[in-house]
Amino acid sequence: MNQEVESTPREKVVVVLSGGMDSAVLLSHLAAQGHPLKAVSFNYGQRHVRELDSAARLATAAGVEHTIADLRGLTPLFGANSLSDLSVPVPEGHYAEESMKLTIVPNRNMIMLASAIAWAISSQFDAVAYGAHSGDHAIYPDCRPEFADAMSAASLLCDWKPIRLMRPFVQFDKGQIVALGHDLKTPFELTWTCYQGGEKHCGKCGSCTERQEAFAQAGVVDPVAYV
Amino acid sequence: MNQEVESTPREKVVVVLSGGMDSAVLLSHLAAQGHPLKAVSFNYGQRHVRELDSAARLATAAGVEHTIADLRGLTPLFGANSLSDLSVPVPEGHYAEESMKLTIVPNRNMIMLASAIAWAISSQFDAVAYGAHSGDHAIYPDCRPEFADAMSAASLLCDWKPIRLMRPFVQFDKGQIVALGHDLKTPFELTWTCYQGGEKHCGKCGSCTERQEAFAQAGVVDPVAYV
């Protein structure tokens, strides 16, 4: 890619940056394409709040403006779940297990996208990007492609200037995302994945299990420390 | 309506209750239909925050559980506007005027609906209702019917159990809403409309102007006090 001879203006993009590996690669990917970027992360009372530190460091490393929006005022609407209610224990093992449904914050993706779109509008940006991928789980209804399509339609209509929703990894699995991040030199050592939010990654929760499988699939060494 | 012989279960509905006249009538309307209800209001740093007191009083009068969700953590995403930024003066006169665009909070409806839907999901409710009506303004893109249709589609897909978006006033103008509220004995004296948020309604802002026209059209005396 030769940025010097690029003549068409790139879309300005607000990136939803969780601090995990998918959105870290998304940031690298859009930066490599030359898009002017801003990044937004959300504090919704998650137990693994240290992912927000990771998000801030990833944005700094990429030279991108970063804002943490605080959704904790919505906690009374969420009900009991293990991500935002510390009295509910984090289940271990694979996402496929029934117990993983406890990790759901209701309607999280719609709330985050709606908020990121608001920032795109007030910033006179063109698009919002997020790291939806083909491996998103059957237990997360708001990761379904048909949900994303409906949100895309709403996003094009919520303001006079359409805001485009970008999901460049929608055909990728997590192993392919790791491989792309490896090529783009994504600083994986800055990312945070574990739902437990301890000093090191626990290596046991559904989120850690998936991360380890993705790095193994890509044949890339995961630089983060595990318990 | 005879509730005693009602045999089909009514949908349980979360009502988006601003504290203004439209949502007040919406609450009366759904209560009269026998729906189990909860009401949610949003603090997004609006200048006319006293509408939240009106919302609480309307919910109490209707015997409905009420929660105020706090969206002020999103203020950094909104940019400058007269509703949430006290340094921007409230424009006077009709909504049709260009200056009224200053009253826009970007993507407000998507954010509020997304949040209300989250509460419907965690409450195992069936639907979210809001007071969209035919008079919603050309300056509010997120009041367009096609936007509402896209949000309805997203709402049916954001969880395994579909959440229905109800807009029973979509064919009504504000005069018709006042007439219905008059029939249903909606306590209009508890509502708050003015964007200025003073002791009494200013009678000059776009919101007051519209309210006065609606009551005049319906031939109903507005019980609130004006400056």
TrEMBL record, chains A, B:
<feature type="binding site">
    <location>
        <position position="208"/>
    </location>
    <ligand>
        <name>Zn(2+)</name>
    </ligand>
</feature>
<comment type="similarity">
    <text>Belongs to the QueC family.</text>
</comment>
<dbReference type="GO" id="GO:0008270">
    <property type="term" value="F:zinc ion binding"/>
</dbReference>
<dbReference type="GO" id="GO:0016879">
    <property type="term" value="F:ligase activity, forming carbon-nitrogen bonds"/>
</dbReference>
<dbReference type="GO" id="GO:0008616">
    <property type="term" value="P:tRNA queuosine(34) biosynthetic process"/>
</dbReference>
<dbReference type="InterPro" id="IPR018317">
    <property type="entry name" value="QueC"/>
</dbReference>
<dbReference type="GO" id="GO:0005524">
    <property type="term" value="F:ATP binding"/>
</dbReference>
<keyword id="KW-0436">Ligase</keyword>
<feature type="binding site">
    <location>
        <position position="194"/>
    </location>
    <ligand>
        <name>Zn(2+)</name>
    </ligand>
</feature>
<feature type="binding site">
    <location>
        <begin position="17"/>
        <end position="27"/>
    </location>
    <ligand>
        <name>ATP</name>
    </ligand>
</feature>
<feature type="binding site">
    <location>
        <position position="205"/>
    </location>
    <ligand>
        <name>Zn(2+)</name>
    </ligand>
</feature>
<keyword id="KW-0671">Queuosine biosynthesis</keyword>
<keyword id="KW-0479">Metal-binding</keyword>
<keyword id="KW-0067">ATP-binding</keyword>
<comment type="pathway">
    <text>Purine metabolism; 7-cyano-7-deazaguanine biosynthesis.</text>
</comment>
<keyword id="KW-0862">Zinc</keyword>
<protein>
    <recommendedName>
        <fullName>7-cyano-7-deazaguanine synthase</fullName>
        <ecNumber>6.3.4.20</ecNumber>
    </recommendedName>
</protein>
<dbReference type="InterPro" id="IPR014729">
    <property type="entry name" value="Rossmann-like_a/b/a_fold"/>
</dbReference>
<comment type="function">
    <text>Catalyzes the ATP-dependent conversion of 7-carboxy-7-deazaguanine (CDG) to 7-cyano-7-deazaguanine (preQ(0)).</text>
</comment>
<dbReference type="Pfam" id="PF06508">
    <property type="entry name" value="QueC"/>
</dbReference>
<keyword id="KW-0547">Nucleotide-binding</keyword>
<feature type="binding site">
    <location>
        <position position="202"/>
    </location>
    <ligand>
        <name>Zn(2+)</name>
    </ligand>
</feature>
